[in-house]
Please model this.
Amino acid sequence: MSTLRLDSIRFLDWEPVSLEVEAGGKIGITGTSGSGKSLLLRAIADLDPHEGEAYLDDRARQSMPAPDWRRRVALLPSEAAWWYETVGEHFGGLDASCWEALGFGPETAKWTISRLSAGERQRLALLRMLEGQPEVLLLDEPTANLDVDSTNRVEALVSHYQTSTGAAVLWVSHDESQLRRTSEKVMRMEGRRLEAIQV
Model:
């Protein structure tokens, strides 16, 4: 896996962000609504206009096709898109343990997207993203719509994926206690800049 390095990433009128997330590392980002957390993740994923550059190890984002970058540096938005009628059509071939990790059974593949709750969509979107084996996870409020049990399952699955693959993780959440529990370093978006929090 690779280290994610941000070199003066700047969007709108926010201060430039320079940051490094080592392979196998996890940084949490918190902040109030509208502080720019989601915009930062979208800039890193190269989905919104921005200045500066992002790197996987020493390879710049601009040196590779956008689809390749977004496959390797995967964004889980707060509301993921679904384009087929059933759940299974969005996946390759997951074994039962993958479904069970987030509280589903293999029969979930036959469910229609329209019957899913917001929380079910959120968990399945994470599972879909991990199936692509990304090197960097950009997680935007991945447990915002979940109960305690589902939140614990998501945290455990991300931790397992990170440990087993060496992926780097940027985890955005309003829940600072969650970030202190799951991340090695916590930062806050405030006043159009990203600052470290003393833990």
Summary: The domain at 4-196 is CATH 3.40.50.300 (Rossmann fold). The chain has one domain: 4-196.
